[in-house]
Fold each of these.
Amino acid sequence: MSGLTEQGAAAVGTAAARTKGLRKVYRGTVAVDNVDLEVPTGAVLGMLGPNGSGKTTTIRMLLGLVTPTAGEVELLGQKMPDGAAKALPEVGALVEGPGFYPFLSGRENLLRFGAAEPLLATADIPNAVGTAIERVGLTAAAGRRFRGYSLGMKQRLGLAAALLVPRKFVVLDEPTNGLDPAGTREIRTIIADLHAAGTTVLVSSHLLAEVEATCTHVAVLNQGTVVAQGELSALLEAGSASLLVTTPEATAAVDALRDQRVPARPTPEGVRVDLTATTAPAVVEVLVRAGVPVYEVRKQRTGLEDLFARLTEASSAADLAELDTLITEEAR
Ligand SMILES: Nc1ncnc2c1ncn2[C@@H]1O[C@H](COP(=O)(O)OP(=O)(O)OP(=O)(O)O)[C@@H](O)[C@H]1O
């Protein structure tokens, strides 16, 4: 990745957000380590990772809510935290625990948020609040006190606050947390609408199917580091392909491949060969050389779930480094 641009540099062709060597240590716990994240302008980037992998900490550092122990953050062309006053009005964020007043209604809370928006004229606040409430499906509950809200309603109100004014960049930390299936579908629609309007979106999620359905790009975090990032289609192509080989001599095929350090295992459908570190022609060559009859060879796309599992469960650092290099190279 190229170095960070100077503060105020033109954002054309640059990332909406970018981190370099980002690190956060909490009293001996390394929450985030050496994260180089790039959110391309106009992308919907899904940040995936198991519990505790550093997603929320990374997002909080990106928004200037947490001070990094080391590293740099650039947000909408502004170096953070110095450029916060310029960048943040263009950024809508749904992060854990937005400061809502429990004794005010959802609408009253949003009116207060509206008053604090530098890009919203006072006369436009009631309209903006009404539109945001409708957009997140909170109309029926808008007059009720916040303290009586369900988790899903709180999420919707947080989202409404993030969308009060048109943004260049929207950051959503686990936006479907606490939402029912209808709410989850609505989030998907809102993200698609934002994307269509040219807004860059960063969304963290555990829901792989959601990410696969809504995102153009993915960054996978594990134990505080980015283990893969790039275009979703390229990552899937590079990271999760396997080969299904039909042969009457499955055991001989598996032995021959493992002899060449190619991961392979027998399955009821045939011998499944991991293509992470090899290619289909190379697999066929190994089999033919070993005298194994090959009836059929098919490439399989196993989806984001498989890729995610392999990236986050790889047993050794060497496995991860190998997989990361391969995926990053292919995704470029
Ligand atoms: N304020 C804090 N003080 C101490 N440790 C923290 C703090 N915030 C996060 N951590 C630790 O940093 C690590 C990363 O946490 P983080 O919340 O960023 O992960 P996450 O990927 O968002 O997890 P989840 O999916 O469970 O929300 C964890 O080990 C967590 O316990």
Amino acid sequence: MSTPYIPCLDLGSYINGSEEERKKFSDELGRAFNDSGFVTITNHGLSQDLIEKLYENIKAAFALPLETKRKYEKPELAGQRGYTSAGKETAKGAKTPDLKEFWQIGQEVTDGDPVKNEYPDNEILEELPEFNAVTGSIYKKLEENGTHLLRAIATYLELPINYFDKHVHNGNSILRGIHYFPIENPEIIPDDAVRAGAHEDINLITLLIGASADGLEVLTRSNEWLPIKAHHTDIVVNVGDMLQRLTNNKLKSTTHRVVNPPRELMKTSRFSVPFFLHPRSDMDLTSLPSTIDAEHPKLYSDMTAGEYLDERLREIGLKK
Ligand SMILES: O=C(O)CCC(=O)C(=O)O
Ligand SMILES: [Fe+2]
């Protein structure tokens, strides 16, 4: 089920559809990215079974003792691989860190591409061998879905359909398993402490498998917070700042947040698993000439994806 402002699109109709269906999907996706910056998608090819396995493993991983999880927290990796404990990530411009802990999995390069040297190895969670296999398989499937979505967007932007392919092949994407832990003593947390403070994602697009509980909200153009209702098996997709930058704000990287639960649910956990689709670090994010004109002057300085990521990781406190 989707919220009226957030359209729900059938990815199967793009991947396996007729020319006409593919065009329709690409127009609808482009329009939504131009408007709210968010869609939900169905028929994404991830089985319910795999999604359930994913959540079982994510829950089991965060249920491990803190000292076990801490073995996988390496400050030199700036949160980009393995475990990041509570209190480390703060939304850009916010004072109090988010009420969450998370685990990040990065790209596994297997085709001899020298870009492998840019990526640290993934941390292998020895206590839960299935966790590594399941998250690795989810990573690949979401990457594949994301590549299809970017093809649809390339068509919408009147670029060659494969415009993004070479940039996202072996790109610096991240799968992040998040645990928003129970809030045991709501009275003693700072007033501004939230599960995830209002922010925009850094990457090209984000694909998020419907979370275990409500809480995700997007900021509409009329400045109202709109809750996103997604079935457990739907995928929420949104534009990130890199795609907004490339399109000189034609496509919107919409502000979103995760609110604290109502009082009666304060002591429950929430789990979610976003996939941040990043390009390779050498992708040039200079705004496309077709998106710049007298009415839409150029808004951003020219930067590569790698330079931009570095700047943003410092702003959110993950990189020192
Ligand atoms: O947990 C969610 O539903 C959203 C998480 C999110 O926005 C993020 O990690 O960037
Ligand atoms: Fe986000």
